[in-house]
Amino acid sequence: MYNKKMEGQLPKTLFDKIWDAHVVQRKAGFPDLLYIDRHFIHEVTSPQAFDGLRKRGISVARPAQTTATADHNVPTQNQHLPIVDQLSRFQVDTLQKNCDEFGLELYALGHQKQGIVHVIGPELGLTQPGMTIVCGDSHTSTHGAFGTIAFGIGTSQVEQVLATQCLLQYKPKTMKIEINGKLSKGVVSKDIILYIISKISASGGTGYFVEYAGSAIRSLSMEARMTICNMSIEMGARGGMIAPDQVTFDYLQGREHAPKGEAWERALAYWKSLRSDADATYDKVITFEASDIEPMITYGTNPGMGIRISDQIPEVAVDSNLADMQKSLAYMGLQPQQSLLGQKIDYVFIGSCTNSRIEDLRQVADFVRGRKKADDVNVWIVPGSKQVEAQARAEGLDKVFAAAGFDLRQPGCSACLAMNEDKVPAGKYCVSTSNRNFEGRQGPGSRTFLASPLTAAAAAVTGRITDVRTLID
User: Fold this and answer.
1) Do 321 and 287 lie in a common domain?
2) Ordered alpha helix ranges (H), 42-149
């Protein structure tokens, strides 16, 4: 447990406390040797790492601290049947073989707790405050919502963690982003993070680890906090985190891998100490007012190209140049000074590790209850895990979606990225609750507008980009 007396009373940020507590070895001019508490793996970035272990004739150092799941390549329909795509089937089968060989826990396709890696970690209670967490996936920053240092790593680093349970890392700078005040009608956590990125750009957080703070952040649920931390990487940051509080503790209590009994009380005492000291200093501090945030939508080909839904596309994006802007708008088929309101769309995707939790699905179901999708729009609802899917069906959300003409699928990364069968066709427009709008991200030639689940649902029922506030009583 962190104690200021141990550090000569020097004030520290939450990030500094957790990082310094996990340094195994430090030497001037070299990266820190950082101990890793929890390692998540999936089928895409782990095969070469296991091959590296075999070539060196070594085993996984601490198997109990690595958890695997299949998510990127899995189909979201007919999961009881063999995977049709040959490469996807090979990658999922290889993960199974590797986990069997090295004795790792795997939530495989067909397991009742399988799902997107950044969804199942928290819901199983594997993600806990004060931890260091890594995964061969950039959106590992999601877990920072629990007051953890969580970040994505490359395949060679996956091997490093499997072999040693440690990682060589240079310590990043610290940034605090504070959002104060009350959110307006129709504004949710996805709008908060899209607004932040639109203001500081897709590279504004480069070199930093971000702590989100302020009254607007404290008012959010854990699932909403996960959405914000998930997209920290989209501003170039190494990761993002939120100090744990009673909301965090209530979410964790009773979950499968959370501490129990006396162990819970000991853990809780430690978790309550995990906050930045009042006089701690950050390398950079940015403040926003919640009242300035509206429902957000992106217009370009990086997440920093976003606007409030009532605004027009700018002449040049923040931290961009005219040539990049012109290339992006040409790909999207849009023009500067154009309003996106009324823009016809073809697909709506509600899912991904950003917005596929039960709270997201409830939000959409509450909005569409009694409404129907536009005739020429395809709507995919993809839960983040088997547990989310089961909960949605238990609450009757599946019936609401069916009545609205929405297609409720099975868990997986789905149309967040073109690694599985769920692809948006070339030239088609998709309003997506995922985290990236890069060229071809949802399929070759696909065009993506990033938005919140509410804004996506509004587009689904109108067939056009719509200000959801006009449809909320």
Assistant:
1) no
2) 47-56, 86-102, 117-123
Cβ-defined contacts of 246-253 (< 8 Å, 24+): 247/218, 247/220, 247/221, 247/222, 248/129, 248/146, 248/147, 248/222, 251/122, 251/222, 252/125, 252/128, 252/146
Amino acid (1-letter code) at residue 125:
G
Q: Are 320 and 306 in contact (CB under 8 A)?
A: no
According to DSSP, residue 25 is labeled E
Percent helix, strand, coil in the chain, to 5, is 35, 20, 45
Pick the last residue of a domain from 139, 170, 201.
170
Q: Which run of H or of E encompasses 194? A: helix 189-200
Question: Cα angle vertex 284, ends 283, 286, to 5°?
Answer: 160
What CA–CA distance (Å, rounded) separates 82 from 85?
9
Residues 6+ apart with CB under 8 A from 172: 207, 208, 209, 238
**Residue 229 within a domain:** yes
> What's the distance, CA 379 to chain centroid?
21
In a domain, 256, yes or no: no
CB under 8 Å to 379, separation ≥6 — which residues? Answer: 347, 348, 350, 373, 404, 405, 406, 407, 460
Q: How far apart are CA 181 and CA 348, in angstroms?
A: 31
Q: Residue with structure tokens 């939790």?
A: 357
pLDDT at 321: 87
Of 227, 261, 292, the residue at which a domain comes to its end is 292
Residues 181 and 83 in one domain: no
Task: Specify whether 181 is located in the same domain as 105.
Answer: no
462 and 374 assigned to the same domain: yes
| Nearest in space to 433 (alpha carbons), one of 373, 371, 354 | 354
Tens of pLDDT, residues 12-45: 999 999 999 999 999 999 999 999 999 999 999 9
Instruction: Specify if 252 maps to a domain.
Output: no
What is the rounded distance in angstroms from the CA atom of residue 466 to the CA atom of residue 192? 18
Same domain, 122 and 192: no
Q: Which residues pair with 239 in a beta bridge?
A: 209
Distances from the Cα of 23 to the Cα of 29, 80, 133, 161, 167, angstroms: 15, 44, 14, 14, 10
Q: Are 345 and 463 in contact (CB under 8 A)?
A: yes
Please tell me whether residues 210 and 283 are part of one structural domain.
yes
Which domain does 324 fall in, by range?
A: 297-471
How many structural domains is the chain composed of? 3
pLDDT digits (tens, 9 = 90+) for 44-92: 999 999 999 999 999 999 999 999 999 999 999 999 999 999 999 999 9
Per cent of the chain over pLDDT 70 is 98
Residue 282 and residue 309 in one domain: no
